[in-house]
Structure formats: structure tokens, C-alpha cells
Specification:
Blueprint: H1 8-28, E1 31-41, E2 53-56, E3 65-68, E4 72-79, E5 87-90, E6 115-121, E7 127-133, E8 145-150, E9 164-173, H2 178-184, E10 195-198, E11 214-217, E12 222-229, E13 236-240, E14 245-250, E15 253-260, E16 262-265, E17 270-276, E18 283-290, E19 303-309, H3 329-337, E20 365-376, E21 379-384, E22 387-389, H4 396-403, E23 424-426, E24 429-432, E25 438-444, E26 450-454, E27 459-466, E28 484-485, E29 487-490, E30 494-500, E31 506-512, H5 515-519, E32 523-528, H6 576-597
Parallel strand pairs: 1-4, 3-8, 9-12, 11-19, 20-25, 22-23, 24-32
Antiparallel strand pairs: 1-2, 4-6, 5-7, 7-8, 9-10, 12-17, 13-16, 13-18, 14-15, 14-17, 18-19, 20-21, 25-30, 26-29, 26-31, 27-28, 27-30, 31-32
Helix pairs in contact: 1-6
The structure holds 2-acetamido-2-deoxy-beta-D-glucopyranose (12 copies).
Signal peptide: 1-29
Organism: Glycine max
Region (Disordered): 537-565
Amino acid sequence: MAAGSAGPQLKHVTCAIVLLPFFVTMTTSADIFLDWHVSADFNLKPVSTDQPVITINGMFPGPLINATTNDNIHVNVFNDLDDPLLFTWNGIQQRLDSWQDGVSGTNCPIQPGKNWTYDFQAKDQIGTFFYFPSINFLKAGGGFGPIRVNNRPLISVPFPKPEAEFDLLIGDWYISSYKDIRSRLNTADVPSPDWMLINGKGPYMNNLSQSYETFNVTQGKTYLLRISNVGTAWSFNFRIQNHQLVLVETEGSYVNQIELESLDVHVGQSYSVLVTANQNAVDYYIVASPKLSNATNNNTLVGVAVLHYDNSTTPANGSLPSGPDPFDLQFSINQAKSIRWNLTTGAARPNPQGMFNVTNVTIIETFILNASTATIDGLSRYSVNNVSYLIPDTPLKLADFFSNGTGVYELDAFSKNTSNANAVRGVFVASALHKGWTEIVLENNLDIIDTWHLDGYSFFVVGMGEGDWNPESRSSYNLYDPVARSTVQVYPGGWSSVYVYPDNPGMWNLRSQNLQSWYLGEELYVRVYDADPNPAKEKPPPQNLLLCGKYQPPTPPPSVSPAPNAPSSNAYAYNPHRTRSLIAMITTAICLFYIDLH
Ligand SMILES: *[C@@H]1O[C@H](CO)[C@@H](O)[C@H](O)[C@H]1NC(C)=O
Ligand SMILES: *[C@@H]1O[C@H](CO)[C@@H](O)[C@H](O)[C@H]1NC(C)=O
Ligand SMILES: *[C@@H]1O[C@H](CO)[C@@H](O)[C@H](O)[C@H]1NC(C)=O
Ligand SMILES: *[C@@H]1O[C@H](CO)[C@@H](O)[C@H](O)[C@H]1NC(C)=O
Ligand SMILES: *[C@@H]1O[C@H](CO)[C@@H](O)[C@H](O)[C@H]1NC(C)=O
Ligand SMILES: *[C@@H]1O[C@H](CO)[C@@H](O)[C@H](O)[C@H]1NC(C)=O
Ligand SMILES: *[C@@H]1O[C@H](CO)[C@@H](O)[C@H](O)[C@H]1NC(C)=O
Ligand SMILES: *[C@@H]1O[C@H](CO)[C@@H](O)[C@H](O)[C@H]1NC(C)=O
Ligand SMILES: *[C@@H]1O[C@H](CO)[C@@H](O)[C@H](O)[C@H]1NC(C)=O
Ligand SMILES: *[C@@H]1O[C@H](CO)[C@@H](O)[C@H](O)[C@H]1NC(C)=O
Ligand SMILES: *[C@@H]1O[C@H](CO)[C@@H](O)[C@H](O)[C@H]1NC(C)=O
Ligand SMILES: *[C@@H]1O[C@H](CO)[C@@H](O)[C@H](O)[C@H]1NC(C)=O
């Protein structure tokens, strides 16, 4: 039958098939609306100490963001603290939209008593992430919470559906107020965190813990544990008495599954592991103990929770399961090197992860970034290539938009691969070539395990080692199946190398996840610029853009309040949803019109 003689039903079917992709994408990305009231709670006292704890809607840790790939997330943040506030979404890539990244270089802070709404999409992502307050050292007081990005139904994951999923936000904790610690950071006298909390709770069997964390399981079932290190300084080793961990995911990438007795998790990293409840139905210890520390079993720096089998009446007993020697860095490095990308498994999109093969890429540029401490103007600072980051009053992103950076920063004023002759404070913004593969070598001249995070991307961890990096170190790189993630550890005195493909235009924070180092200057920004102003590339600023620094809002007329979302005030409004719906509607109209004509 010739197409021209096909009945209208067939044409309608053809229309439907042509239009299906539009409607599928429209219906599979849901909108999630959240209202968050962020305040300081003085009554929680997780380890009995009088101190403020930063809660969200009264919760510590904050509420779960339970999203699915491509969902649009809208978080209206009400700042009831007495400090300016921003949240960042660790590992969420903010494709084409660094305006939502929530760090000092991209956003004006939400002032006390004010609210501001983030609108972002979990575009083409899947996995375990978390959020936290990014400025003013607030993370040391809490305010962090879990993010899950679940797979869409049409995407299969490389393991059977677990019986249940648990979020484990584990991190060190100070017994003093975050404000006290913050005020001491400008002196040399900074204490180390004193406790390890699991989901905001102190260790089991410690009489100072207000409560301890328990996970209920049924014998024979398998569970997915989403573990993040939300702390400020300590890496930890995670393990469960008598149980194996099967590592499956690393900050949004599926890995070759490996069975582990214990897993090292560094500050700012996330993993998911499968645990099968295949032991006698009693209770077992779950432990997170600090690396590079002689903490004994009953030390407050050892986090302890309980794995409770249904109907168990036997409390966990015996001694805590022993982990590797906390000073054995070779153990840690070997484990890190054994974490490999599964090249054949699916990803957030319906194609294998290994489509992105780094074996044969051409590196356009190498950054060599050296972290160290320096005394500048009599104060102890952390620096990158001898430059300690100085936060300008005007976010870099705003300056980019309004004045091409003029008056706020100078692009590439500092070297990306050698240390500045003298230690200085400065606004370190490095250019990366749009879509030019970049190698970043991170060197650690500190005596702590450092971790580095890049916003906007997953990078490929191609190598790490002890001692100095030199070009010959490249011969040890794994270019076959390096894992893609957003946070990499750098061992004391050692280096780690990553490859990144800068295909996400914007202003992106590259920082130490160690809170004290970050706060005292160990960060820079990477500017990825694409000259094409097409909003299908980088997005314009959001409608609710906050102004500050050099760019102050005009004083509003006292009584007239403009209608919210009035189209005339939408100078920058760009709504991908609306655009897609519009395209779908126009196509439908054309399609139906065409049918009527024939
Ligand atoms: C999270 O969302 C998924 C998919 O919609 C759903 O199956 C699951 O029950 C949700 N989990 C929680 C804890 O809300
Ligand atoms: C502040 O919250 C109100 C709702 O209480 C909302 O209508 C408004 O859009 C929010 N403001 C911003 C800037 O997000
Ligand atoms: C808590 O335990 C410590 C040592 O085990 C002990 O010295 C202290 O008295 C106990 N405190 C309370 C309130 O029971
Ligand atoms: C876990 O089990 C205990 C005891 O069986 C019960 O009291 C508690 O409510 C359960 N917790 C959850 C989250 O189901
Ligand atoms: C990698 O993923 C594939 C597809 O999901 C799976 O069959 C295979 O077992 C995985 N390999 C490893 C080592 O986990
Ligand atoms: C930890 O113990 C080792 C060996 O006993 C010792 O050499 C080291 O000084 C101790 N470190 C700390 C921080 O106490
Ligand atoms: C802590 O553990 C050590 C040995 O691991 C033991 O000598 C000490 O008595 C314990 N302290 C308390 C308060 O239980
Ligand atoms: C736990 O006990 C209840 C009531 O006695 C029983 O129905 C259930 O099957 C038991 N669960 C397991 C896992 O044994
Ligand atoms: C705890 O003690 C009981 C005996 O009292 C034993 O049957 C059980 O296996 C022990 N649990 C562990 C985890 O060792
Ligand atoms: C990646 O590409 C290289 C050649 O460019 C090839 O040798 C290698 O097998 C590829 N890896 C995978 C996993 O396909
Ligand atoms: C690897 O790259 C080289 C040079 O860019 C190219 O000639 C070669 O075909 C590539 N090999 C594969 C397998 O892609
Ligand atoms: C904006 O700044 C960049 C980097 O400093 C420069 O290369 C470019 O020419 C500037 N663009 C304009 C329009 O001034």
C-alpha cells in the first residue's frame, strides 16, 4: 500500500511514532519540589556536647533527595541560620548550568532570613551523591544529606534489585561549635575532629552517644549500602563484622564488582556496596575507623553502628572487626588501583559506559597542581601552586556574565603547572580548552590524605603513587579501564592523575574536600568557555539570579511588587521543559494539519 493511500489511522500512528520520543522524555523526567528550612539546633547534642547542629527541616543529616535520572529538582532553601549559606551538590554535574552549583565562585550567598530556589537536573546521571553547605565552614556543623539518582525503568543496573537501600553518611565531628572552630582557623591552634558519626549518631556502646545507628535486615536478603564520607578531615576504613562487601558503584560509575573485607572512603567520596545477610540471625558491628590514626577500638573517633537481623535477640559481641593497619598506605593504594570501570555495563543512558574510551585520547594540556601550606601575611594558609585562593566579593560567574571577568579576576594569571615563586593570595582561575582532553596531576605536599574534587564532571583516575610525579610516571597509568568519579584521594607526599574532557562549559570549582584546607585557600576555578551563546550549550542565568558584590540589585520601588514569573521580567528565562513542550505541540499541530490535508 502506497503511503499516499494510507488511512488517517495509519497516519495518526505514524504521527505518534514520530512524536513518541518527545513524550517519553517529557514524561520520564519528573519534577521534585522541596522546601528546606535550615537552622541551628542546640538540643540534638549527638555526643552530649552543647553545640549547634545544622539541621534541614529539623533533620540531621538532612532529608534524602530521591531522584531518578533526568529529574528536575527544585529546592527552595530558607536560611534560618545567622550565617550566609549556599548548598552544593557533590557529584551532580549541573550540565551546562554552573549557575546552580552553589559554591562561592558561582552563586551569591543566601543571606540569613532569606530564601532562594535551586533548579537543577540530574542529567544523564545515576548513582550515589550527597549535598552539603559549601561556605563559611558550615559543613563542620552538619547540613549535609544524601542524594540518590535512581535508574530509569528502561535502564537495567548490573545487579539484582536489592531488598532495600540504606544511606550511610559517615564523617568526623568536632565537639565544639563550628563557629568556634572557624574563628580559630586563623590562628595555628586548630584542633582535630574528635568523633566519627554515622548518620549523625555517635558510636554504639559509647555512653556519650545520644543514640546509635541500626540497620535492620532479613536473613538471606541482599541490601545496597550507599556510603559517603561527609566529614571534614579523616579518611575512614569501613567494614561489617562477619560480612563481605561487594563494591558496585563509585560516584555514579559502575565498577567491576569486587568482594572486599573493608573499604577505604576518603573525604567527599561516595560508594555503593552490596551486603548479603548470610550469617546467623544475630547483631553485628558496623565500623568506620580513621586512617592514619592510632585510634583504639573504644576511641570516639571510631564510628560504630549495628547490623540487626530480624528477630535477633543477641547483641553484637566480641571485639570490633579489625581492619587493615591504618598506617598501611600501600593497602589503601592497592585497593584504589583495583577499583576499575566496568566497560561493558550500561550507564545512565542506554549505552555501555566504555563508549568513553580514554586509551587513545590526545591530551591537549597538563595541569600540575601542588598542594602545600604557606604563611602569608603572618597567617597560615593552604595553597595550590603557592597561590592561596582569595574569595572575591563578586562570584566569578557573575563577573563573567556581566563584564567578562573584568574587575574580579584575570584568567590564567597564575601558572597551571608550576608553583608561583612566592606564596600569595589570589583569585586563581585557570582556563581549560572546551572539548580538549586535559590531564590533571595533583600533588600533595601535606602530611594528611588530601582529596580533590572537580565540580561539573566525572574525571578518569588514571594513576596514583607515592613520591614525586614526573613525566615517566605516566608509564604506570591505567588507560584501559580507569574509573570515572568526581573525587580522588592524594596520599601524603604522593600524587594522583586524572583525565578530564571539558565538554561542560561553565565556571567549575576544583577544590580540596578537606574542609580546613579548602576554607584556607586550597582551591581554584576552571573556566571552560564555549563562544557559542546558544542556550542549548551553556544556560543563561536563572530568573531568580541573586546579585551581590559589584552587581547590586536596583533598589526596588517600595510598594509595587512585580507579579512573580511575569514574562516581561524574564529577561534570562529559559525553560528546557517549556521549549520541549512547545516543540512537541508545534510538531503535533503540523502533523495533524498534514493528515487533514491528505
Ligand atoms: C525512591 O524513588 C524510587 C523510584 O521512584 C522508589 O522506588 C523508592 O521507593 C524511593 N525511595 C524512597 C526512600 O523514597
Ligand atoms: C521564596 O519562597 C517563596 C515561597 O515561600 C517562593 O514563592 C519564592 O519564589 C522564593 N524565592 C526565591 C528567590 O526562590
Ligand atoms: C561513661 O564512660 C566512661 C568510661 O567508660 C566513664 O568514665 C563515665 O563515668 C561514663 N559516664 C556516664 C555518664 O556513665
Ligand atoms: C529495627 O528493628 C528494631 C527491633 O526489632 C525495631 O525496634 C526498629 O523499629 C526497626 N527499625 C526500623 C527502621 O525498621
Ligand atoms: C560488567 O557488567 C556486565 C554487564 O552488566 C556484567 O555482566 C559483568 O559481570 C560485569 N563485570 C564485572 C567484573 O562486574
Ligand atoms: C601511632 O603508632 C605508631 C606505632 O606505634 C607510632 O609510631 C606513631 O607515632 C603513632 N602516631 C600517632 C599519631 O600517635
Ligand atoms: C579502651 O581499649 C583499650 C585497649 O583496646 C583498653 O586498654 C582500655 O581500658 C579501654 N578503655 C575503656 C574506657 O574502655
Ligand atoms: C520473626 O518472627 C516473626 C514472629 O515470630 C515471624 O513471623 C517471622 O517469620 C520471623 N522472621 C524471620 C526472618 O525469621
Ligand atoms: C555473640 O555471642 C553469642 C553467644 O553468646 C554467639 O552465638 C554469637 O555468634 C556471637 N555473635 C558474634 C557476632 O560473634
Ligand atoms: C579502547 O580503545 C583502544 C584503541 O584506541 C583499544 O585498543 C581498546 O581495546 C579499547 N578498549 C575497550 C574497552 O574497548
Ligand atoms: C589512535 O589514535 C591515533 C592518532 O590519533 C590514530 O591514528 C589511531 O587510528 C587511533 N587508534 C584507534 C584504535 O582508534
Ligand atoms: C573575555 O575574556 C577572555 C579571557 O580573558 C578573552 O580572551 C576574550 O577576548 C574576552 N572577550 C571579550 C568580548 O572581551
